[in-house]
Design goal:
The complex is a heterodimer of chains A (366) and B (335). Chain A is 38% helix and 16% strand. Chain A has 366 residues and is an alpha/beta fold. Chain A is built from 15 helices and eleven strands. Chain B is built from nine helices and 13 strands. Chain B is globular. In chain B, strand 2 (63-64) and strand 3 form a beta hairpin. The chains are: A alpha/beta (366), B alpha+beta (335).
């Protein structure tokens, strides 16, 4: 697909002018939260905060799956890695995230078998290659990646693999937005809704946010023009006093999403409560394996007892994830906490807002 | 070779090792200095100073679109020596082979190294082979060292960049890194992207002839353009500003990078050169690059300015952002 028009400077400039005109019309402070980590990176990488009018602030939300993973879940992954004859596999960004006392990277350096994979299907291939080992995939991610995990379980079933299992730390987005909308400390005027997640679930699951909380949302893509168009559409809604869920990313998202992919998820998973770092437990926003698939459920099959979880001292990732502070307002930003030596997960993950601010802006850096 | 796989005995120092060297490595490399099988090669060396570099190659997978670990090992060391302005002459090769590695694959690598060496005009003159037990290696690791002759008076360094200089790249960025990642399990793209691994000594020679006051060359391998420019900016105490739209990137590489969440400025290259050249010689340097078979997409991508060691990118619609160095590994996005 040719994306050049979505990077076209002329179109972008036109949108920036339209945004400025709308923002002036609205007059008051407007806070727009992007919920997806890929948006966070796109905004930082393209310098889009700098072209916003003074009264429009783009805030990063809880859209990086690594960042919102609770300490306790990382502790469980670590305990799984400590088991004999067990290989823990996970996406690379999870390796350096500190749990309460350690990280998967540190456990690997200590000799435990932890491996980075690029897809759960790699973990499946490893299980086929190492029949004497238990291969666990530590699954973090939102609606975007969950169908792939479901597909890996389907394939494990087809192949009769009994040494593959999943530790599901998955989370789903829409109800988390409601939790933010309900939080008195968080004052968001509009949401830039996640493009990739919406490819799977469509636009309908967000509509209750617009209806119940009167907060508009626009699903956008990841090119600069996509994001600017999303901001423009949101400001237009605010100016006109509307609150709707609109799709600005028609090339990627249909209103009904991808029902086939989601049906596969529902075959294996059911909603459970999930602990979001910085936000707490949000009912129904996790996905656990259904009881009939216990044989693929790592925490059932390979029970472990993690230590009592402990918060990371001084870390304000929770406030960053809720948009209460921006990364450079955290006392540790660029001081104790850098991508080389991260203290909190928002600085670890390539999609974390602290990492994005650190990589692409001068804020807070000497 | 009687065995189709590498055995531990091939590293033992005995007859099996001699068989591997005499029947496989030496005939495939086909170089007179190597054929003598002495412990040290004795070589003619022209007048001037010596440029000397070494690197070790542990790439996975070892065969990938457009190249393999062997071509990489020769081109990488040739380019490292050539960045000093030297003419690369001789190369040594050390293999660490894993027990069970296919001899057929080794020969593919050897012949690829021979071809790359011929293309670069360098001689593989000495080497070493070790075998490690199965499970203690990744098939094959290669170390290469290279020497070259450096003309008197030529002194290039990343610390010599001056405000007013221009930044050039010899072609499209990111091809190698994306070619490697595209072959990893679970990731496949509709368009095949090939590695750019190439010996650039002739290109560098042409640029130096056209732009004799060139400050430095650097090949943006691991860490990509951003690591290279950040190192130069820090070493010279200057600011570097790159114009995003001026940087050549193949559309399919840009697409794959977007899909994976990679920053194309941080993706590895194996056949590209960055040059810092005084403004008045920049066009001549560019023309010299473009005249080389590996430089047809060369471009002037930015400027050296007064500043304090930082690198900035001017985006296409007027905003500016930092171009930071890669921390750790590039990882695909998961959101």
């Amino acid at each position: 697909m040719d994306l050049s028009s979505f990077r076209d400077p002329e179109i972008a400039r036109g949108l920036i002018e339209a945004i400025a005109a709308n923002a002036a019309e609205i007059g008051r402070e407007v806070k727009i939260m992007e919920v997806c980590g890929t948006h966070t990176v796109a905004i930082a990488k393209n310098g889009l905060r700098a072209v916003m009018p003074d009264n429009v602030t783009l805030l990063s939300g809880p859209g990086c799956p690594v960042c919102v993973t609770a300490n306790e879940d990382i502790d469980i992954a670590i305990e799984l890695a400590k088991r004999p004859d067990t290989i823990v596999t996970t996406f690379g960004d999870m390796m350096k995230v500190p749990g309460s006392y350690s990280s998967l990277a540190r456990e690997k350096a200590d000799g435990h078998d932890v491996r980075i994979v690029y897809s759960p299907l790699d973990a499946l291939a490893l299980a086929a290659k190492e029949p004497d080992k238990q291969v666990v995939f530590v699954a973090v991610g939102f609606e975007t990646t969950i169908p792939l995990i479901a597909a890996s379980i389907l394939r494990a079933e087809e192949q009769g693999l009994t040494n593959f299992s999943v530790f599901s730390a998955h989370k789903t987005v829409p109800l988390a937005l409601a939790a933010l909308a309900n939080d008195p400390e968080v004052k968001i005027d509009a949401f830039i809704l996640p493009g990739h997640v919406s490819t799977i679930i469509g636009s309908k699951p967000y509509e209750f946010i617009a209806e119940e909380f009167h907060i508009p949302g626009v699903i956008t893509g990841f090119e600069p023009v996509d994001v600017l168009q999303g901001v423009y559409m949101l400001l237009k809604q605010l100016e006109e006093g509307r609150a709707e869920v609109e799709i600005g990313y028609h090339r990627g998202v249909a209103a009904q999403g991808n029902p086939t992919a989601w049906a596969l998820v529902e075959k294996y998973f059911e909603p459970i409560d999930a602990d979001w770092r910085g936000i707490g437990v949000i009912p129904g926003t996790g996905l656990g394996l259904r009881a009939e698939y216990d044989t693929y459920n790592a925490v059932v099959k390979l029970p472990v007892t993690p230590p009592e979880p402990k918060a990371i001292k001084g870390c304000q990732c929770g406030e960053v994830l809720r948009g209460i502070i921006v990364p450079y307002e955290c006392k540790l930003f660029a001081k104790g906490c850098t991508p080389e030596h991260p203290i909190g997960p928002c600085m670890v993950s390539s999609e974390g807002s602290c990492a994005a601010y650190y990589r692409f802006t001068d804020y807070g850096k000497a | 070779m009687r065995s189709d796989r590498i055995l531990l005995a091939h590293g033992s120092g005995g007859t099996m090792m001699r068989e591997l060297i005499e029947e496989c490595i030496v005939p495939d490399f086909d170089d007179d200095a190597l054929k003598r099988l002495d412990d040290a090669a004795s070589l003619d060396f022209p007048a001037g100073r010596l440029a000397f570099s070494t690197d070790t190659y542990v790439v996975h997978p070892i065969f990938f679109p457009g190249g393999d670990i062997g071509r990489l090992a020769i081109c990488g060391t040739v380019n490292d020596v050539a960045t000093s302005g030297a003419t690369p002459l001789y190369i040594s090769v050390g293999f660490v082979l894993e027990e069970g590695f296919l001899v057929e694959d080794l020969r593919r690598v050897l012949l690829s190294m021979r071809d790359a060496a011929r293309e670069a005009g360098v001689h593989i003159v000495t080497g070493d082979t070790k075998v490690v037990e199965k499970g203690h290696g990744d098939g094959i690791f290669i170390n290469t060292a290279g020497v070259g002759s450096l003309p008197e008076g030529l002194d290039l360094s990343g610390s010599y960049c001056k405000p007013g200089d221009k930044v050039l790249v010899s072609g499209t960025l990111g091809d190698h890194g994306i070619a490697i990642i595209s072959t990893r399990e679970g990731l496949s793209f509709e368009t095949s992207i090939e590695t750019d691994a190439a010996p650039l000594n002739a290109l560098i020679g042409n640029v130096l002839a056209a732009a004799p006051d060139t400050r430095c060359f650097r090949d943006p391998t691991r860490g990509g353009l951003s690591s290279t420019l950040n190192e130069m900016a820090t070493a010279s105490g200057v600011q570097i500003t790159v114009v995003e739209d001026a940087v050549p990137v193949k559309p399919q590489v840009r697409g794959a990078s977007e899909m994976l969440g990679y920053d194309v400025f941080q993706v590895a290259n194996e056949g590209k050169m960055v040059a810092i050249v005084p403004a008045e010689q920049a066009e001549a340097a560019l023309a010299a690059m473009k005249a080389s078979p590996y430089g047809e997409d060369a471009a002037i991508i930015g400027d050296i300015e007064e500043g304090a060691g930082k690198v900035y990118v001017k985006t296409s619609f007027g905003s500016t952002r930092i171009m930071d160095m890669l921390v750790g590994e590039q990882l695909p996005r998961i959101c």
